[in-house]
User: Fold Multidrug ABC transporter ATP-binding protein from Pseudobutyrivibrio ruminis.
Amino acid sequence: MANDTTKPILRLIRLLGKDKLKVYLSFVFALFYSITQVAGPVLLGQSITVFAKGMTKVIKNNQPFPFNQLMFYIALCGGAYIFNWIFLLLQNYVLIDVTQKMVLRIRLEISEKMAKLPLSFYENHLYGDILSTLTNDVNVLSLNFRTFLIQIADAPIYLLMMIVVMFYRSPILAVVVILSVPVSALSSKLVLSKSQQYFDAQQKTLGELNGIVEENYTGFDVVKLFGHEEEDEAIFRETNRKLSKASEKALFRSYLLAPIVMLVGHIAHIAVLILGAFLTFLGKIPIGDVQTFLNFVNSISEPMQQIARLGSVYQSFIAAASRVFAFVDEEEEKDTSVEGVKAENMNVSFDNISFGYLKDKIVINNFSFDVKEGEHIAIVGPTGAGKTTLIKLLMRFYDVLKGQILLGNVPITDFNRDTLHELIGIVPQEIWFFQGTIADNLRLGREDATDEEIEVALEEVGADYFVDLLPGGINFVLAENGANISAGQRQLLAIARAFIANRSILVLDEATSCVDTQTERRLQDAMIKLMEGKTTFIIAHRLSTIVDADKILYLQDGDVKEHGTHEQLMKLRGLYRKMFDSQYT
Assistant:
C-alpha cells in the first residue's frame, strides 16, 4: 500500500491521462540526454589523452602531432554537449506542456468541486484557508511537478550509465566515486524524513495566516469601529511567528543536506585525484581518464546536490498536493433527486422537521406548518430563533435531520437542487455583488433580461432615482460587493434583482433592514407588486413591514409559539404583542 508521501504523487500521475505518452517520450529524451551527458566527459578525457600522448611523441621522439585525431575527438565531444543541450530542451518542452495541462485539469476539478460542496463546508472553514489551498498550493504543484518528473527520469538512467562506463574504464576509481553515493543518499533520507512534518505545519499555518488576513480585511470597518486593532495585530503576530518558526525548522533541516552532500563530493574529488595520479604513474590508466573521473565525481554529486536543493521544494510540494486532494475529496452534497419530478403547485409544507447544525444541538424542533400557494408568511422572533435556518432548509442548503419539507406535495429532496433554486427568488440578509456593471449583477436573476426590463425593475423598487445619477446608469461599474455605493442602495439593487428573477416562491430575509424610513415607504408598493401571486416568506425584525402578511409565525427556540394575522396576534397579547409594543410604544 502506498504511504502518505507517495499517494499524492501516484494520484497526480493518474491525472496525466493520455499525456502519459508524452511523459514516456520525455523519458526517451532523458535517455539520450543521459547518453550524451556521459559521453561528453569520456570524449573530453580521450581528447586530453590524445593531446598528452601527442605532445610526448613530439617532445621525445620528434614525431608529428596527431592533430586530426585530436580534432576528431574534440568534434565528437562538442557534438555530445550540443545534443545534450537539445535533448534537455526537448524534455523540458514536453514536460512543461504535460504539467500545465495537468494543473489545468486540477483547477477545473476544483472549480467543479466548489459548486458541489455543501454550504456547511464554507461556513466551517476559514475563507483564507480555502483560498490558500486553491491558489498557493496549486501554484506549488504547477511549479514543482515538472521538476519532480525530470528528476525521476534523469537520475536513474544517468547514474546507471555512469556506473557502467566507470567500471569499464577503471574499477578502482569507480568504487571510490560510487562510495560517495550511499553516504549522500543516507544523509538525504535521514534529513528529509525528519523535515516532512515541519513542511506540513508550514502549509497549515500559512492557510491560517491567510484566513486571518482575509477576515481582518473584509471586516476592517468593524475592527476600526470597536478599536480591536491591537488584539487583531497580536493574533496576526502570533500566527506569523508560528509560520516563521515552522518555515525556519523546515528549511533549516532541508538545507542541512546540501553542505553534507557537498562535503562528501569534495572528499571523493581529492581521493580520485590522488589515486588517479598514482594509477597514471603506474601506467594502469591514461591521464585523460583522471579528468573523466573528476567530471564523474562532479556529475555524481551534482544530482545529489540537486536532490538536496529539491528537498525543501519536494516536501512543500507533497504538503501542498495533500491539501489540494483533501479539498477535492471533501464530501459533496448528496443527489437524491428523482428524474422528471414536478411540483403540482407552490404549496409549501413543513412536516414535523427537526434540524441542528450540530446533531447534539437542535435549532429547529418538530416544526410543522402549511403554506398555501400565493400566501405571504412572515416569520418573526428573537435572534437565534431559527428564522433564517428555516429558509436555508427550504433552499436545501442543509437537509433536515428528521421529517420532510414538501413543495407541491413533493418532498424537496426529490428535486434537483438547481431546479429547486430556479423556483425560489431571495433577497438575503447578507447581500453580495460582484465587481461589474449594475446590469450584469442584476442579470444574475435572469441572464436574458434586457436593459429595458432592468430599468423597469429599478423603477418599480424605487432604485432608479440613484442609478440614473450614477455615471453610465445601469452600466456603472460596482466595486467588489458594491463597496462604492451605500448599504441602502445595495439593498434596493438586491430587491430589483429578485424582481427581475420573477420566481414562483419569494424569500425576503430582512429585505428592508438597511433602508431609511422614507425609502422603506417607497418600497412597500414595490413589495406588493413583487409578491403578487407568489408564495412569499418574509423574515423581519421591523414589524411594520409585515402587518399585512396573511400569516405571522412567532418563532422561539425553534418552535412556533404563536401564529395568526397581525390583528389576531395583537389581540392575543402574547409574545408578538410584546415585541410589537417594544418597537412602537
